[in-house]
Sequence to fold (152 residues):
Amino acid sequence: MQKFWGFLALIAFAFSAWAGQVELHLFWSATCPDCHVMKAFLEGLAQEYPDLVVVEHEVTFNPDNWRLMVTLARAYGLKEETVPTVFVGGLAITGIGRAVELQIREEVERCLAQGCPSPMERLPATKARVLSPLEIALLLGIAVLVLFFVIK
Fold:
């Protein structure tokens, strides 16, 4: 019986530790200077709040991450699909600056105090059917090549 209660206490501890974590999703581009500013801010924030889990999604070279960002942006009601974009708790925000950082910090603190579901829980069953900027650039490049050889 004592082993049972010990096991139950261990599960309760693990659940409370898990429940206290806050999941933040950052969508960024390797070619975006503002994204690197946001990444640095979030690294500092994660050091300040050890229960903050920052999940990074690079969108320039990964079209599936771009579609994931667009899908989440639509689920949160964002009108702008740009990087850097951060999703945490009930907050979806783009850009950088002190006002953006303050909003992120406040939402992280609120989620740590009250608990928040993962932003991924807002995802619909299917991702948005959109082309990423990389895919659009590749298609335009192919179209230019085809036109070049047809006109020549």
